[in-house]
């Protein structure tokens, strides 16, 4: 079936540390993997995405890696700051380009 | 502000009521989506419209009825809902459906069914 698993569900780090969130997907044909950030009481917003023709993408302190063989991808945030505190959702594209989202990870960055 | 608006922002309704949620996008997109976001659950895709045509109904109960009169407006008509339907309902839009583009979300409607 169409499934995306995301771990961990909660993550607490000290300011300045790195945070890693991992997702697995069920369909080997999936080829688009966006990450969304949702701050408390706000709408989800895209922070980075990756397509299957690349293995890694970076944007300042954020990076995403993709392992197509293992069907998993990860979000890496370095030098975390309190404003990084939010819920992060991964997603994968399925049949027809439909996005299926993971369960979300609540990241807390402690000053 | 992402250019996607939703009204109302909050809605409380009884199980016998009929109400409608409205979404409007000012981004010139051709695809619009309804998602349900419940506590401790992932964003659940409900419906997809592409160029005003429904292209996806993700096994949504018939008490939820979408309407897309044009590419800028999307409605979700609600009737005889259940308490478990209480959730945040998010609308999103993108340039086209079934292509790999960013989806822009609205602020959501917080629905409570009594």
Rg of chain B over CA atoms, rounded to whole Å, is 13 Å
Are there runs of chain A of 5+ residues with pLDDT below 50, and where? Answer: none
Distance between the termini of chain B: 31 Å
Radius of gyration of chain A: 13 Å
Specify the structural class of chain B. Answer: mainly beta
CA-to-CA gap between the ends of chain A? 41 Å
The greatest interface here is: A-B, 24 and 22 residues
Order of helices and strands of chain B: EEEEEEEEEEE
Q: How many strands of chain A? A: 11
Secondary structure tally: strands of chain B: 11
**Major sheet summary line of chain A:** 6 strands, mixed
- Quaternary organization: heterodimer
Strand composition percent of chain B = over 45%
Assign an overall shape of chain A: globular
- Whole-number mean pLDDT of chain A: 94
Number of helices of chain A: 0
Helix/strand-derived class of chain A? mainly beta
Number of helices of chain B: 0
Helix content of chain A: under 10%
Largest sheet of chain B: 7 strands, mixed
Q: SSE order of chain A, as H and E? A: EEEEEEEEEEE
């Amino acid at each position: 079936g169409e499934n995306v698993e995301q771990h961990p569900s909660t993550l607490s780090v000290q300011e300045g540390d790195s945070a890693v969130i991992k997702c697995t997907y069920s369909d080997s044909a999936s080829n688009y993997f966006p990450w969304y950030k949702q701050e408390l009481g706000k709408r989800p917003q895209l922070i980075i995405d990756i397509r299957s023709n690349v293995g890694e993408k970076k944007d300042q302190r954020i990076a995403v890696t993709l392992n197509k063989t293992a069907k998993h991808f990860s979000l890496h945030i370095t030098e975390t700051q309190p404003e990084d505190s939010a819920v992060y959702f991964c997603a994968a594209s399925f049949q027809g380009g439909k996005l299926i989202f993971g369960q979300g990870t609540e990241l807390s960055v402690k000053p | 502000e992402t250019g996607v608006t939703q009204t109302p922002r909050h809605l409380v309704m009884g199980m016998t009521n009929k109400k409608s949620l409205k979404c409007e996008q000012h981004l010139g997109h051709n695809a619009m989506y309804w998602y349900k976001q419940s506590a401790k659950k992932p964003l659940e895709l409900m419906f997809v419209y592409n160029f005003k045509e429904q292209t996806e109904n993700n096994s949504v109960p018939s008490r939820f009825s979408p309407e897309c009169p044009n590419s800028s407006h999307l409605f979700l008509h609600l009737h005889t809902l259940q308490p478990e339907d209480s959730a945040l309902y998010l609308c999103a839009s993108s340039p086209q459906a079934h292509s790999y583009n960013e989806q822009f979300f609205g602020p959501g409607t917080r629905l409570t069914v009594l």
